[in-house]
Amino acid sequence: MQIVKGQLFADVCHHRALLVYLPPSYDKSTSRFPVMYVHDGGDLFDPAFSTALDIIEDQFAEGKIPELILVGIQPGNRRDDYTPWFSKAISPERNIDFGGQGDAYLSYVANECKAYIDSKYRTDPRPEKTGIIGFSLGGLISMYAAHQYPDVFTKIGSISGSYWYEGMVPFMREKKMYHSGLRIYMDVGSKEGAKKQNVQKQMVPLTKEAHQILADSGFTADQLALFIDEGADHLSECANARFPGALQWLWNEKEETEMELAKLIRERRSIHRFTDREVDPALVTELMDTAVWAPNYHMTQPWRFIVTYGEGKRRIAEAVRIMKEKREIDPAKKKEVGEKFYNKIMAIPMLMTVIMEESPNLITRQDDFASTSIVIHNFSLLAWEKGIGLTWETYPWIHEPEFREAMGIRPGEKVLGNLHIGYPAAIPGAQPRIPAAERITLVDKA
Question: Would 201 disulfide with which of 140, 193, 276, 353, CB 3.0-4.6 Å?
Fold first, then answer.
């Protein structure tokens, strides 16, 4: 009998049944955990169908992979949910078409389901800590997710993926699915399709072709794996047996309690588009407690912060609306312009107004400005580590009397900007930097 050291819970999100597995140390720590979303209701790890959890929990104990939260998602109709586009039936005896509702299903997983899981459980919501995996058509839709949502899921598991599906291999060839942040595991049994008389007889060669397409597009051996299970057929017990190995390959990176600083600095981006997910004010306060450990001459600590979210944003939005309407020259456009900026502010999940007390001493004032700027950057790095993005906005209206009055800015205080804070809806690519060697002058002689 299988003895599970972690915890299994039945849950529901938007009328879909979920099976949630929490690892052994979940209740013994305050840590956040990576998440693997598993198709077919989690049959790959459900003790009712699989003994995989025994092996996986041994992997946790031996430090082979980090402890994971596993989320099994029950399909409505797997022929519909796990296919990216419509296709006619391939088997005359069953004569059931494939519905091609994969985009709707993945949208549910990436948005509704992930937001629900992230809000209810202690997850690490960052893309690099989020994966998706499935068997057969579940493996197919996982590979499709690698193309559609590479900024949500970066650990992709395709166990006996159905690459025979009409149009999938051409799609992969045409779309050039390379993404630097992805790790993709593929496997197939050597006997899969051998007894079929339809397109499924091409199971093994098409899986190899799909793998080669990915390799040719730029994926390295560290990012892409294909395992041929000798003697294995297209059976759930074969898939269940390979599931722990798939997790070990996908998650075998050394687990760090904090992201490497150099990597964090290089990967942080200014974020301008956010999801609807709310940012926890308590987490922001916790991060700022660390961020304020910035160099500060004479320890003046001249900063303070006003954090607005929810209905509190209306204070800023209304002040901006009034300012924009007042300054719009064309009377016919006043209301339209004011409404535009009001809605723009209200769409931001959280705003932080950064305020600095201005010293009458010029040198102290310059030092204080530098220190407060470091605090802002410290905060942006700490937030990024938690999967939260921001942009530092310094638009002119933050210095206007209407804004200062609305926010309670005192005489002698300077507003350094508003931080727009939220969970990224899109992460822009990196902009190239001039090599430091071109901007550093080395002087070693008098």
Answer: 193
Query: Please, what's the b/e burial string for 216-238 (b: 16 or more CB within 10 A of its CB; e: otherwise)?
Result: eeebeeebbbbeebeebbbebeb
Instruction: Give the integer Cα–Cα distance in Å for 147 and 124.
Output: 22
Cα 411 vs. chain centroid, distance in angstroms? 42
- Contacts of residue 28, Cβ cutoff 8 Å, sequence gap at least 6: none
The rounded radius of gyration (Å) of the Cα atoms in the chain is 26
- Largest distance between two CA atoms of the chain: 89
**Is the whole-model pTM more than 0.70?**
no
Q: Is 207 left (phi over 0), alpha (psi -120 to 50) or beta?
A: alpha
Query: How far is the C-alpha of 7 from the C-alpha of 382, rounded, in Å?
Result: 30
Neighbours of 34 (CB within 10 A): 23
All domains of the chain in start order, with CATH: 7-250 (3.40.50.1820), 261-422 (3.40.109.10)
Q: Which two tokens stand for residue 72?
A: 């099994």
Pair of tokens at residue 149: 């949502």
**Neighbour-count burial for 286-307, b at 16+ CB within 10 Å, e otherwise:** ebbeebbebebeeebebbebbb
User: What pLDDT does residue 258 have?
Assistant: 43
Query: How confident is the prediction for the chain on average, in pLDDT?
Result: 92
Q: Does 289 score more than 80 pLDDT?
A: yes
- One DSSP character per residue, 119-167 reads HHS-B--SGGGEEEEEETHHHHHHHHHHHH-TTT--EEEEET--TTSTT
Measure CA of the first residue to CA of the last residue in the chain; give whole Å.
Answer: 79
The token duo for 416 is 């350094």
Side-chain-facing half-sphere of 293: CA atoms under 13 Å: 5
pLDDT at 171: 96
Pairing of strands 35-38, 130-135: parallel
> What are the C-alpha distances in Å from 44 to residues 5, 48, 50, 224?
17, 10, 6, 21
Cα→Cα distances 123→21, 25, 30, 67, 353, Å: 12, 13, 10, 11, 28
* Residue from 445, 389, 375, 384 nearest 417 by CA: 375
